[in-house]
Amino acid sequence: MTTKISFSQYLDSKKQLLESIKRDPIITTSYTVVKYCKLPIASNDDANEKQYIELKPKHIIEVVWHYKNDLKDIDINEMQRQPLKIKLIDQCVEFALQLKEQKLTKWLQTNTRED
Question: How far apart are CA 56 and CA 35, in angstroms?
Answer without folding.
Answer: 6
